Amino acid sequence: MKIKDQFRFVRQNIKKNKVRTGMTILATAMGCTFLIVLASVGYGLQESIVKDTLEQQIVTEIDVYGHISEDGNYRPLTMEDIDVLESIDNVNAVTRRNELRQFPTFSLDEYKSETTTVAAHFPSEIASGMELDEGRLPEKPNEVVVGYHFLDYFVLDVEDENIYDETNGEIKEEYLYQADLIGKTLDMTVRKDEMTDDNEHSIPLTVVGILKEPTREWMQDQKVYISSDVFADVEAYTGTPGGELGVDVNALESTAADSFDNVKVYATNLEAVQAIVDELDDGNYASYSVVSEMKQINMLFTIMKTGLILVGTIAILIASIGIYNTMTMAVTERAPDIGIMKAIGAHPKTIKQIFLLESSYIGIIGALIGTVVAYVVSFLVNLGLPLIIEFAFKEELPEQLQFSMIPVSLVLIAVGICLLVTILSGLRPAKRATQIDVLKAMRREI
Fold first, then answer.
1. For this UniProt entry, which segments traverse the membrane (predicted)?
2. HEC per residue, the chain
């Protein structure tokens, strides 16, 4: 019997029992839908968390915290380490920063602000992706650039409780500096602990540039980026590392003069990150990259998705009971047909194949219907569930949060499981069909 004849025979038999076959297909479709929708939660949450993590961090960025010697001692990074890091293959830039350990006061006319101050190496910063919104980079030791939000906190030096807007909590516009800051000279005032008349030291700094706004809306950059010469001037005045207050004035002598608080390595591309991290580990450098975090997150979600798929498979296994029952009844009802086929010389393998085709037919139709329904349910979940949660719990969810996502790989897994279960469910009835006695079948004794 040709394969097309076998399919014709299967379709004819299914038409004879539309209701029973339809209910079996429905049960299979429900099991497939349950599997896909359940596992899609794991895929959706993974996509949301991974996407959010990647958006918050530069994927080619590697934080290097220090060097661990063979005896286990930890030391900060120096210029020798910077040279080593820059010599690694596929390293695009190595930035190094030192942060003042006090908040200097920056003043201009009647306006002032206290903010974080960082000594940066601008050539490496530009190579790593730092961009200016306006102005230029510093060329002299007393020239600085400021963060994009610096002017949002550069206010009149007045004692007024009404400085903040009650509606949004921001500083009222009339208290903010309104003129162009480029080219203006700020007085940076630093302090030291000694209770003398010379307790404050003022350094004039010219603003030559303003950095671009951070890509993330919630990020605020109000820092002032100074030169290493100004940073050294502050250390010399306070006699402490980074101008820190409340420490031994002799502490500077025991600290490496060229050490850095913050060092970041930037790879040329994402594919090179892991190789650089491995080389840093071999060199006993303590480091961290978003790639390492992604590995851990993906591993957790892989376990979660596997568990959800296994739970969803239970629904298909329950549906397989119906398939087994349907195929068993089909064998009994078609005993005369089986007897005729065996009498005219049909091979038992052909008879078995016909019943396996029928069970596979039920599995494929059920899987296709279940997949379509799963996509509809997934769409409704992503559309309606956030609204329900916000209404019930009064919590506003992140815009990028996705509860359900159905990739092609999940569909293939679900269809494969569904097809495998239906074939296994039809094996026993198909084998029973090949064992039917011809004479009994012809006499309808089966």
1. 21-45, 299-324, 361-385, 405-427
2. CCHHHHHHHHHHHHHHCHHHHHHHHHHHHHHHHHHHHHHHHHHHHHHHHHHHHHHHCCCCEEEEEEEECCCCCEECECHHHHHHHHCCCCEEEEEEEEECCCCCEEEECCEEEECCEEEECHHHHHHHCCCEEEECCCCCCCEEEECCCHHHHCEECCCCHHHECCCCCCECHHHECCCCCCCCEEEEEEECCCCCCCCEEEEEEEEEEEECCCCCCCCCCCCEEECHHHHHHHHHHHCCHHHCCCCCCCHHHHCCCCCECEEEEEECCHHHHHHHHHHHHHCCEEEEEHHHHHHHHHHHHHHHHHHHHHHHHHHHHHHHHHHHHHHHHHHHHCHHHHHHHHHCCCCHHHHHHHHHHHHHHHHHHHHHHHHHHHHHHHHHHHHHHHHHHHHHHCCCCCCCCCCCCCCHHHHHHHHHHHHHHHHHHHHHHHHHHHCCCHHHHHCCCC
